[in-house]
Amino acid sequence: QVQLVESGGGLVQAGGSLRLSCAASGRTFSGLAMAWFRQAPGKEREFVAGIRRSSVDTYYADSLKGRFTISKDNAKNTVYLQMNSLKPEDTAVYSCAASPRAGYVSDKYGYWGQGTQVTVSS
Length: 122
What we know:
The protein is mainly β.
């Protein structure tokens, strides 16, 4: 079992930045691929960013490349999502997810956090 707890969400003005954190426990963190997904009201959950077990290889939703950065600290059992130049359309609940194997599809991930709200005002 893996427990994931996100933090760092909040209200920010357009153009601002936030860093989300996701702390993991219960399983060897270095053996997990991690990802961030988001879900806006009335919309389907969408992939944001992922990082492989190596903590080196990262991949992103095309629309978010250059603004968002995912990183993984195995020593702290934590994955981060740095979000810059935020836009109102980035408003959503952001959730981290874990899986032994990386991927873009949410069904691949068996472990999920409770989510953290990010609201970007215009």
